[in-house]
Amino acid sequence: MLIEFSVGNFLSFKETVTFSLEAAAISEFPENTFEQGRYRLLKSAVVYGANSSGKSNLMRAISVMRQIVKSSASMSSTDELDVVPFLLSTETQDRPCFFEVLFLIDGIRYRYGFELTRAAVATEWLYYSKAKAEKPLFIRDGEAIEVQGKFEEGQGLEPKTRDNALFLGVVDQFNGPTAKKVMNWFTKLGAVSGLSHENYRGITFSLLNDESCQPAILEFLDKLDLGFDEVQAFEEDFDPARLPKNTPSELIHRLMSDLKGRKMLQFKTIHDIYDATGKKVGKREFDLDSQESSGTNKVFDLLGPVFDTLMSGRVLVIDELNAKLHPLLTRALVALFNSKENNPNNAQLIFSTHDTNLLYYGNFRRDQIYFVEKNRQEATDLYSLVEYKEDGGTVRKDRSFEKDYILGKYGAIPYLGDFSQLFPKWQEKQKSPTT
Questions:
Q1: pLDDT above 70 (res 246)
Q2: For the chain, give me the number of helices (H) and strands (E)?
Q3: DSSP 8-state symbol, 35
Q4: Are residues 176 and 217 in the same domain?
């Protein structure tokens, strides 16, 4: 379970900010929380902000930390780490990026983090806590790695750790049990793009072939009323004619070579056919890719990661969840996580969106609503609605969050100029003689 994530000096984040899923002491929508040991955690959280404010950078920071943890130990000594510091300040442009996460595994709280540049890991640490007292397992400062007695699995591996490799990853490669648990937590952390979602369809396909999960997915699709009653999945030989029409020719040739003889997943939706009197007279297959809407395709693609996360009780991060989706479809996906019936394993969802309707009918607690906003130096700040101060106090739970947000009371919206004279001035300029 995720407790909190912190990031600093990465992309648009100059100062360190913390995204917390620990529930605040407020009373609304208790069903959106769950107990885990001594913690009360949130099942979901949403991030709002203007374009280029840093929403996607927050989602990317979580994804980048996950990827670095998984891959750094297998890199070569000359490979660079995939990080970019805040470049708009002389204070930070040459300093390492900061990442830290607090999470629970088997009732034990771990705090793991690191600072790194593209070339090397500057610092790294792993702490654990069974009660309130937190104890270190290892602390790294440059080339010096101090391994504590409780982390015997790491002893003797310090010299085997490259400058650009995480010590945690090295210990995992030598089958350290605690390192393996932590690595497994990161592996199960899901990060999905709401814009480029086609790569997740295979997960949906596998779950539709799982007898324990198939009924739930089909029932959910039926309730969405997308116009079809059934979905059929099958494999067929790779056909370049099925690639998007705007696919570059060089990419088509490469795919034809790489995928020759390989199988592709294809999906058909089954629609009813009616006669002139409105009576059902048969069925017709539609190709999901070419004959269904982009929104329907996105819903279908995301069902795999969503239901896989719900079944396993993991954490799922989705950037731009609302893209291509009707607000009610977005609400339905989010409601799966904020439900006791559909989320018995206490899976957690973190997502960014521009869909302000969710602020009205999404049934979110104030601690589930986050905002990102850039200051005058173009650095991103992050804050939740429960932290926001209004007239000397906190925002009341009975306020119209959507209306107040659109009016700019919470910040994190675009500040647009006056466009009323834009076209008259342009037209006047066109009439003036050229010199």
A1: no
A2: 12, 20
A3: E
A4: no
